[in-house]
Specification:
9-stranded mixed beta sheet, 22 strands, 8-stranded mixed beta sheet, D-Amino Acid Oxidase, Chain A, domain 2, 2 domains
């Protein structure tokens, strides 16, 4: 197919995960449906096999509401009413070092939702959005040009787009093809995730216990169910993922929140290796990175997807405002604006989560004393607690309009 005959889109989104689908829906909504958007991936993105839950910040929920997605997610989501942080070392006093009320002036700071439920909701919204079309193909290469980027598809076809967005995950082939490198490392840890049914109501309480092997979190789901995010060394996590129920129950008993009562059903434990990376650049000629293609952070604060959705909200605002001025959304000025907006926020947040993991994933007495005193101090200073909750709710920095509930 010659270049002159290739289809043309304003925006081509590579990747059909949650971030890519939300971006397609947000661009269609903010532009009034007048934008030609192509979403490209080999498959539509199957529902994850692991029973993994996601904590959506208040800003993320506000954005999903603004673009019409949240009503289909809300019936299956559970608000966090309270968040308790403890030093949960086995044998240590289970003193609650820090407690946050989940309700604030803007509503709960977070909602917990099953990843599969969210994936289905955002895929459906993108599929119904005007101006959005799907191309079931892989991208073999991207060549930026003066007026558009040319995408070479694995099937042999092609597509021209004024702006290409890499939403194709942590191992982004589009990012690598653009020569954008990352700074990062492996933690040597894995997160074990599973859904757990239990005897008593959790009352919307989220618990995070800091242990030498890594944080252990229990997030509230609907009914008498909770989601585990259990960090261990990679070797130990692999052992537990392959272990029988009795061995898992024995290890879990040392960490479990007794307020939830006896453990009933435990879903299949799935292990996810934990890595940190941040792209050295978030943009290249006619290209922007969003979500895991741009950054991957430790899950201890549950902010990985929320950072990606902030990327989506910021890029939507930049693209739509640029088009309203009759300008090119893939030109250097709007891309530079997006990178300035998102890179500092992302790097500072990612390094903060990394530092917290390193601070808490050890059992050195002096370090433990300092961190426990520090958390105890925060617990007694309302202004500091509000600052922590504002960060968790996605309300710090230059908040994109969609995350503030404003029209773009």
């Amino acid at each position: 197919m010659g270049k002159a005959r290739q289809p043309v889109a304003e925006v081509a989104i590579v990747g059909r995960g949650v971030t890519g689908h939300v971006l397609a829906a947000a661009l269609a909504h903010a532009s009034g449906g007048g934008l030609d958007i192509a979403v490209i991936a080999r498959e539509s993105g199957s529902t994850p096999g692991a029973e993994r839950a996601l904590a959506l910040s208040r800003g993320a929920v506000t954005m999903l509401g603004a673009i019409g997605i949240w009503p289909s997610v809300a019936p299956r989501a559970r608000a966090m009413e309270r968040i308790i942080v403890t030093d949960g070392r086995p044998g240590a006093s289970q003193l609650s070092l820090l407690e946050f009320a989940g309700e604030g002036a803007g509503g709960p700071s977070a909602h917990v939702v099953d990843e599969g439920d969210l994936a289905r909701a955002v895929a459906g919204a993108a599929g119904r959005a005007p101006g959005v079309r799907f191309i079931a193909d892989g991208v073999a290469g991207v060549s930026p040009g003066a007026g558009a980027a040319m995408l070479e598809l694995e099937s042999g076809g092609g597509l021209a787009a004024r702006l290409v967005v890499a939403a194709d995950g942590a191992g982004s082939a589009v990012r690598q093809g653009a020569g954008i490198t990352t700074v990062g490392w492996s933690y040597g840890q894995s997160a074990l995730v599973a859904r757990v049914a239990h005897e008593r109501d959790h009352h919307g309480v989220a618990l995070e216990r800091f242990l030498p092997a890594g944080p252990f979190a229990v997030l509230p789901l609907r009914g008498r169910n909770s989601s585990l995010v259990w960090t261990e060394s990679k070797q130990r996590a692999d052992e537990l993922a392959a272990a029988g129920r009795e061995e898992v129950l024995g290890a879990l008993a040392e960490r479990w929140d007794e307020e939830r009562g006896a453990i009933g059903r435990i879903g299949r434990l799935a292990a996810f290796a934990l890595r940190f990376h941040v792209a050295r650049r978030f943009v290249a000629p006619r290209l922007a990175l969003v979500g895991d293609a741009a950054h991957q952070v430790h899950p201890l604060a549950g902010q990985g997807l929320n950072l990606g959705l902030r990327d989506v909200a910021a890029l939507t605002e930049v693209v739509v405002e640029t088009l309203r001025l009759g300008l090119d959304p893939g030109a250097p000025p709007p891309l530079e604006r997006y990178e300035r907006w998102r890179r500092f926020d992302t790097v500072s947040s990612a390094l903060a989560y990394d530092g917290l993991n390193r601070l808490f994933s050890n059992d050195r007495g002096a370090v433990r004393l300092i961190r426990d005193l520090g958390l105890g101090l925060v617990d007694r200073l309302p202004a500091l607690k509000r600052a922590f909750m504002t960060e968790a709710a996605g309300g710090t920095g230059a908040v994109p309009k969609l995350m503030a509930g404003e029209a773009v």
